[in-house]
Amino acid sequence: MTIKKLTVPGPKAQALLARDAAIISPSYPRDYPFVMDHGRGSEVWDVDGNRYIDWAAGIAVCSTGHSHPEVVKAIQEQAEKFIHISSDYYHPKWVELGEKLDEIAPFKEDSLCFMTNSGTESVEAAIKLAKYHTGRSRFIGFFGGFHGRTMGALAFTASKSVQRSGFFPMMGGVTHIPYPDPYRPVLNPKFYDDYGDAVIDYLENTVFAQGVPPEDVAAILVEPIQGEGGYIVPTKNFFPRLREVCDKHGILLIVDEVQSGMGRTGKMWAIQHWGVEPDIVCIAKGIASGMPLGAMVARKSIMTWPPGAHGNTYGGNPLSCAAALKTIELIENGFMQNAAEQGEYIMDALEEMMPRHPSIGHVRGKGL
Questions:
Q1: Is 80 exceeded by the pLDDT of residue 332?
Q2: What is the mean pLDDT of residues 302-322?
Q3: Cα separation of 264 and 270, whole Å?
Q4: What is the rounded CA–CA span in Å between residue 256 and residue 126?
């Protein structure tokens, strides 16, 4: 069998890369000279006809693969009716999606949702709501966390210093603490069976006792599984105890499910692996199979802000809402179960390999 050797980037790609360099902002971290032509399922083709497997799913966005025919059909049907109506008015898909998000939200209490265009916008909305509802102005974030690059979200992002370099001062009032990473612990784990307990004790006995009055803290913002920070899965005690701390001090618990949500871990929301209910959840990426959409979903008792307190132009646009409704249907009807089964298989296989491969230091993850 002859294996074709790819020429990457090919001539067509090289020409477009040169045009891109002349006109597009250099701030995008381009890691590979791939210029896409089309995609189907998990496969993509570049403009020179080279075929690839997309292991990144468009940065965790293409939750149903590229151009799933049912999602494409839903978008086309909506586009034939109308493409845009401002958020000053109403449209059926917006309401239908809001009802669906309320149905699947990771808390028992009825919820309300605010539609956005991205994960960063969802986080910004959560920050504003937490400030408004609690009347407090301080927050707790985590080292290794990624929540976006706009100035509010960036105050929490702490995964790579280049993302913050040159933008000081950011929004004030955010204090970072270590994430419960048992493989590379920052705190001394000597006296703990569960490293999550060490992190919570540090929060209570050092941060709150010596530096940040808990009564000033509006919310704790956390990824249930850190993404850019290294796909770190917290130890079992961390989230139950974090919920206890929030309840004790009247602090809101905001979970950033932008990357970990929408069935990717084998459950609709990663936080559900620990049986903990947050107060606010931030959503985007995989919600609409590649269409620009996000949402901030909160307990109804928390979303108390009045008309005009927050808004946008394109959030909840009809095409994205139609794509999201079909995407969630597909996730619930097989994709989420597949993520659970394939994830378990991959974890078992990698753990079996560890003793034979010293280069593997730690195997972690949930689902896909």
A1: yes
A2: 96
A3: 8
A4: 10
Task: Kindly indicate the confidence band of residue 271, based on its pLDDT and cuts at 50, 70 and 90.
Answer: very high
- Asked if residue 324 lies in contact with residue 104, where contact means CB atoms within 8 angstroms, the answer is no
Q: Detail the DSSP E strand segments found in 126-226.
A: 138-142, 174-177, 217-222
Of 99, 146, 142, 144, residue with least CA distance to 119: 146
| pLDDT of the residue at 86 | 86
Rounded Cα gap, residues 341 and 227, in angstroms: 21
Query: Residue holding tokens 């646009």?
Result: 317
Q: Which residue is associated with the tokens 């936080």?
A: 271
Per the CB < 8 A criterion, the answer to whether 287 and 295 are in contact is yes
To the question of domain 1-57 being in CATH 1.20.59.10, the answer is no
Parallel/antiparallel/unpaired status of strands 217-222 and 138-142: parallel
pLDDT of residue 1: 62
What tokens appear for 76 in the block? 């086309």
Q: Specify the 3-state DSSP secondary structure of 115.
A: strand
> What's the pLDDT tens digit per position in 232-244?
999 999 999 999 9
Q: Where are the domains of the chain?
A: 1-57, 70-328
CA pseudo-torsion sign 16, 150, 96, 100: positive
Q: Do 368 and 337 form a contact (C-beta atoms < 8 A)?
A: no
Q: Which tens digit of pLDDT belongs to each residue from 349-365?
A: 999 999 999 999 999 99
Fold designation for 70-328? Aspartate Aminotransferase; domain 2 (3.40.640)
Give the HSE-up count for residue 151: Cα atoms under 13 Å, Cβ half-sphere: 7
Which residues on neighbouring strands pair with residue 282, listed in sequence order?
256, 296
Predicted pLDDT at 31: 85
Locus of tokens 């706009």 = 150
C-beta of residue 167 within 8 angstroms of C-beta of residue 151: yes
Upstream peptide bond of 69 is cis (omega within 30 degrees of 0)? no
Here the tokens at position 195 are 């490293």
Share of the chain residues as helix, strand and coil, in percent rounded to the nearest 5: 40, 15, 45
DSSP reduced 3-state for 352? helix
Are 266 and 367 spatial neighbours (Cβ–Cβ below 8 Å)? yes
Question: How much is the mean pLDDT over the chain?
Answer: 96
